[in-house]
Amino acid sequence: MDETAFVARFAARLPTSAGRPHPGEYPAPALPATWAHFAAVLTAIGGTFAGPVAREQVAAVVGGHLRIHGARRGGGQGGRCVASAAAAPWLKELSGWALSDDGIAHPHGLADVALGILYAEAAVAENAALLFTSRSLPERALGFLAQHLLVLVADGALHPDFVTAQSRLPHPPPHHITWMSGPSKTADIEQTLVIGAHGARTLTVLAITT
Amino acid sequence: MTADRAPSFSRASERFLRDGTHVAFHDRAVAYLRTKRDAAVDHVPDWEAMRTHAAALKAHVLDNLPALLAAFISNARAAGWKVHCAGDAAEMRDQVLRILQRRGAGRVVKSKSMLTEEAGLNPFLEQNGIEVTDTDLGEHIVQLRREPPSHIVIPAVHLRREQIGALFHDKLGTPAGDSDPTRLAHAARLHLRDKFLQADAGITGVNFGVAQTGSIIVCTNEGNADLGTALPATHIACMGVEKLIPRLADAAVFLRLLARSATGQPITTYTTHLTGPDPLRPGHEAHLVIVDAGRSQLHADPEHRRALACIRCGACLNTCPVYRRTGGHAYGVTVPGPIGAVLSPGLTNLRVGAELPYASTLCGSCTNVCPVKIDLHDQLLAWRRRLHAAGAVPAARRWMAGATTAILSRPWLYRLLGRFMRGAWRGLRRRFFGNPLRAWLDERDLPPPPGRAFRDRVPERNRTNGAGESEVGRG
Predict the structure, then answer these.
(1) Those residues with Cβ within 8 angstroms of residue B214's Cβ, 6 or more apart along the chain or in another chain
(2) DSSP string covering A60-124, please?
């Protein structure tokens, strides 16, 4: 139906009293901004935490993941290991991974990814959420199609609480913003927690001292 | 909620109650969600402050709905959404079908959306040759069974693993007798991966629509809404008007409340904000269908408009002793439980779900757990008053209410009947109450009456305690 008439349906029936005002900003709760807190929450929801590690140790940790998943550049039986463009600068010294740039326009091509390596713009200690946007993850499908995820994040990007974190989202917002907290999960069968519903079956966060 | 009249709650709940073992299973399963919610809330020191703030935000939205709605539509258009406004469920169904037909989309993946359930979207699209796959695991289970969800967060909470194992064996080819939840969930993962990859369009619900930016926020734990919007070339988001919030920053309060109230998680695994089409994907289209379907009618009702503040966490279902023991299907409407009993007559008419406001003990537990402080038990009571005034309650219930009013408003009659009943109770309770209270007595027996009235015992107790006038004696 016509938009003006649609809005008028609600305008015609407003209460006679004056509308209540916006209550203002909600104050951020006093919570610790520590990786220990983040790690505790992440572990409780099925994720794994590593670090914080120094920049020079990143290659060793990521290399271990590449070996575990048996991925090799160009594809193969073990599936591919693909990194987002934002994560790529951290992986220069390593081999065994490919860049996901083709996955932006052709997301279906990422269906065989075994390990996705992403770079999160921020993290939240309160709920172990990691921030990805059109800027850090333009190849959006990679974050959901990869069987396993390894997420790099700078240790200075940790927010204590979600109120602060949400208030710092970019304005105007880009096409997509995702807070990702742990691996995909479901409890739809008799309340039994199953990790790996549709998205990543494992999620490891590597905090990097910068 | 599209039916003119919901099926009888009494008869449906009676059927559910016949299997005592299953009732106990359902009660435990749902109560477990409440337990998890409580454990999560205990770790949030500002929980009550947050509830108060969320309630104030929703009150602001409801009082300023036209302005916020207009701003939302304008900002959504500016962000590239193709915005459609639907006055009712039929218009919404038509709009979605037209979009799909214009895009040549024959295969659709859909994430959980109570609005599309309410509007009967799936059967309508299927009748028009569209293949619709519900991708939330619980929704997929009930879709395979050709039945509606029984819970707004855990759609298949009424089913045991063995039932799902048998279903998957039949429909997905899993090994006979396998009812392991992990293996069943992984079988569904494989099956649905193909659906995601083949889909021409993805339909999602909307948890929150942000007026300030024209963005929508979609929350899932499985990642199905993200796959359903990151892969297909067309995204259709269906949103009830009540999902509006003013600003992006305001979402923090609701997102901190939502998952904790629903499942005890600190936040849903995937909380995705989408603003228009993806400019990096050539040909990608994003459609936003904003739906009234009775919301304006409920908004115009000052006594009940607060029900539109609901964020669909399901906490009131999980704590409700009636829902836990009757199951969601007994309600006969899309949203069961206390919030469904409040919404159903408000979004439709007094005939739909006229029994539902009575499906409550009025214990107030729903109100206590509601993250946006909807006064649910008061709302239920208010609906009862309105139903009674409209003559929409059964004659037996009207008679009982009339008799109770007559007795309780005459202290002398109350005392007289009390004295009479204490003497005649044992002999009369089965025979006298055999008719209107029969169902109640089917499940339990009445306790033996006390020898003396409470009113007579208090002075004696006060004398014995030597307290003169005790706390009990006052008032």
Answers:
(1) B72, B73, B74, B75, B76, B77, B78, B79, B81, B275, B276
(2) HHHHHHHHHTT--TT--TT-EEEE-TTTGGGGTT--S-EE-GGGTT-GGGGTTEEEEEEEESEEE
Give the confidence band of B371 by pLDDT, cuts at 50, 70, 90: very high
Judged by DSSP in three states, A3 sits in helix
> Residue A73: pLDDT band by 50, 70, 90 thresholds?
very low
Task: Return the residue matching tokens 């115009």.
Answer: B300
pLDDT (tens digit per residue) in B129-162: 999 999 999 999 999 999 999 999 999 999 999 9
The amino acid at residue B94 is D
How close, in Å, is residue B342 to chain A by CA atoms?
Answer: 20
Whether B300 has its CB under 8 Å from any CB of chain A: the answer is yes
- Chain A residue numbers with beta carbons less than 8 Å from the beta carbon of B181 are 189-190, 192, 194
Distance CA B338, CA B358 (A): 10
Q: What angle do CA B321, B325, B327 make, to 5 degrees?
A: 115
Mean pLDDT computed over A94-107: 86
pLDDT at B193: 97
pLDDT at B4 over 70: no
**Among candidate residues A66, A62, A64, A57, the one with its CA nearest the CA of residue A96:** A66
Residue A83 has pLDDT above 90, yes or no: yes
Q: Pick from A147, A136, A126: which is nearest to A174 by CA?
A: A136
What pTM value is reported for the model? 0.92
Please give the Cα distance from B182 to B441 (Å, whole number).
Answer: 42
For residue A123, which of A194, A49, A25, A27 has the smallest C-alpha distance?
A: A49
Lookup: tokens for B238: 């269906």
- Per-residue pLDDT tens digits for B183-200: 999 999 999 999 999 999
CA distances from B38 to A128, B44, B254, B259, B264 (A): 20, 10, 17, 12, 7
* Assigned token pair, A26: 């909600």
Cis peptide before B279 (omega within 30 of 0): no
Cβ neighbours of A174 in B, within 8 Å: 275
Residue B393 has pLDDT above 90, yes or no: no
Give B239's strand partners.
B290
Distance CA B276, CA B272 (A): 13
Please state the ipTM of this predicted complex: 0.96
Q: Do B279 and A175 touch (CB under 8 A)?
A: yes
Residues of B in contact with A7 (CB under 8 A): 66, 69-70, 73
Contact A84, A100 (CB under 8 A): yes
B44: closest CA among A31, A39, A33, A26?
A: A31
Over residues B398-447, the pLDDT tens digits come to 888 889 999 999 999 998 988 888 877 766 665 555 555 566 666 666 77
Dist. CA B213–CA B248, nearest whole Å? 7
